[in-house]
Amino acid sequence: MAIVGAGAGGLTAALALRDAGIDCLLLERDAAPGGSTALSSGFIPAAGTRMQRAQGIADSPARFAQDVLAKTDGTAAPHLVRAYAEASAAAIESLAAHGLAFEVLDGFLYPGHSVHRMHTLPQRTGAALMAALQRAAQAAGCDLITSSLVTELWLDAGDRVLGVGFERPDGRREQVACEALLLCCNGFGGNPALVGELLPSMRDAIFAGHAGNDGSALLWGRDIGAGLADLGGYQGHGSWVVPQGALMTWAVMMQGGVQLNAHGRRFHDETRGYSEAAVEVLRQPGGTAWNVFGDRQLALAREFPDFREAEAAGALRTAADRQALAAIIGCTAGGLAPELERLGPPFHAVRVTGALFHTQGGLDIDAGCRVRRPDGSVFPNLLAAGGAARGVSGNAVWGYLSGNGLLSAVAGGWIAARTLSAQLRT
């Protein structure tokens, strides 16, 4: 059993396979696992967990599924929405059994979620999540080969995967045979040609994801005749701090902050979501905006390590009054949005742009994460999860519900392991 990619999806699957007594080999392109997970906030949405119950939060997979479908206006794949929502709690519980100390963020709601269901480690970073997953995998005896860039898949005439070929940093090529293959490797956000072809609105946007998102899973799918789906779906973010290059939490917007353009005007409803905000920000003069907020929102922002690092790098500007804020933005005080009255003074401002984080389309899969052909039939022993597969965000930027990326990685990795366990038993 081989897994391509040792991010959240691959490591979750490996741990679940080890729990089932099945050996597997993880192939990771980087010298140390990190990928998109390490760059994320590390928040995993899940419904009906014991962590929620301990904090008095009532939730259910059905309610979670309703929220996902509502955010996508019913365009997300129903079979995956249902499967991921139902598997989310079990996936979180399985990781908790390996020592990951999850708690639920309950200070604010992310856009589209009707209850608090974002599970996080106390450090509240994707890097901490990856470190904890790696420790758990090492303790469980998972086999991992790093610096191994998979370049080819081998299939027989019946579309059964026989093995993969990978390349070492020194150019040496190696091969490994496998009974089954799980792709948890990447999306295509780091491939300019594919972004230009499939996501033209993001062609000139900053890519704030991992360089490993080179679209190899999608290209392998094209080569072997696999089905592809939701290729227009992606996670953008309208709060990428410039020029410091850091992610600013959207919690500030959800707690009353506003985004103003170079004329001091508010130009969209920030509470709709940070993903679609990326497009709105890029439409503004210079492709940038200012996050403006008061003391209460600043205190909340400082709870997040990414913001503290950006502040230390000089991203935060503070104005004693409207005139000073106008000088920071470069507009007239009279042109400033009236919504500022609810915030201060003093006013705090951070300059941001819209960025592409990761794609949400990819290999078409069934509810067991088995890769499908265009006619709906499945490959005998090829599975996909996370960025390699279609997600549950529909086919447009506005369908992304906060946490959908890690949902498809963690729930998808757990489901794929269950599918593989059943296949290997029979």
Automatic annotation (TrEMBL):
Domain called FAD-dependent oxidoreductase 2 FAD-binding: residue spans: 2-395
Cofactor(s) for this UniProt protein: FAD
Keywords carried by this UniProt record: FAD, Flavoprotein, Oxidoreductase
Gene3D superfamilies tied to this protein: FAD/NAD(P)-binding domain, Succinate dehydrogenase/fumarate reductase flavoprotein, catalytic domain
Matching InterPro entries: FAD-dep_OxRdtase_2_FAD-bd, FAD-oxidoreductase_2, FAD/NAD-bd_sf, Succ_DH/fumarate_Rdtase_cat_sf
GO molecular function: oxidoreductase activity
UniProt-listed PANTHER family: FAD-DEPENDENT OXIDOREDUCTASE 2 FAD BINDING DOMAIN-CONTAINING PROTEIN, FUMARATE REDUCTASE
Listed name of the protein: Succinate dehydrogenase, flavoprotein subunit (Fumarate reductase)-like protein
